[in-house]
Amino acid sequence: MTISVAVSGATGRLGEFVCGIVEDHPDFELTARLSSASPADEGADASVLFDVTHPDVSPAIVERALRRGQRVIIGTSGWSAERLDGLRAVVEELPGAAVLVVPNFSLGSVLGTMLSTIAARHFDSIEIIEAHHAGKIDSPSGTAVRTAELVAQARDGRPPEAPFADQRARGQLVAGVPVHSLRMQGVIARQEVRFGGEGEELTITHVTHSNDSYRAGIRAALGAVSGLEGLVVGLEHVLGLTGASGAARA
After folding, report:
1. Active centre residues (catalytic)
2. CATH superfamily of 107-209
3. Alpha-carbon distances, residue 101 vs 22, 169, 199, 228 (angstroms)
4. 37-95, pLDDT tens digit by residue?
């Protein structure tokens, strides 16, 4: 039996890509392509809502979908810890509700973040540099925010060294980790997590060259969402990577 999927934000670059993957997947059926002009009840009969919209509208779209009994995959960036707390409260009100929040669908990006949580236990100087295309609205990126939060979590309460963090040029502190954002033409996505120790430096870098890097992660999210329960943040939980890294469920 095929599972019906509605894609919210279907006219955007990522939304169109997701629609194509759903259409090509033998276990799923694309039943609605939703845009900002779509009525609020369009796509309500789908079993899964895949949200790739805008940070300003995503929370309302997701909550509406949950309250009408849909399972939700969130690929929209900008879901901060505060927003996730609000979403968690909604999910806890609704027995059987399930939401998978994916800051980045790239397998390489997820692995880079997990490797960073391992390194974070052994280095005190930690900073993140992330770069995206000039049209990306939010900064820092959802991927960088998630990486910083997991890096801080892996350190068991020991804050990273971040000298002169009050200076604007030092970036934005996320969970105590300085994050520097670049928005430039010619870039799709790039993240560097830099670690400094006595006499050495380690850099974990991931570069996205095309949307094709998201294909496997999107398929994994689609395949997993029907079996999830509650709020799950990060594709690492779907890929079985949390044991080695020590990353915790949100």
Report:
1. 132, 136
2. Dihydrodipicolinate Reductase; domain 2 (3.30.360.10)
3. 18, 30, 38, 12
4. 999 999 999 999 999 999 999 999 999 999 999 999 999 988 888 899 999 999 999 99
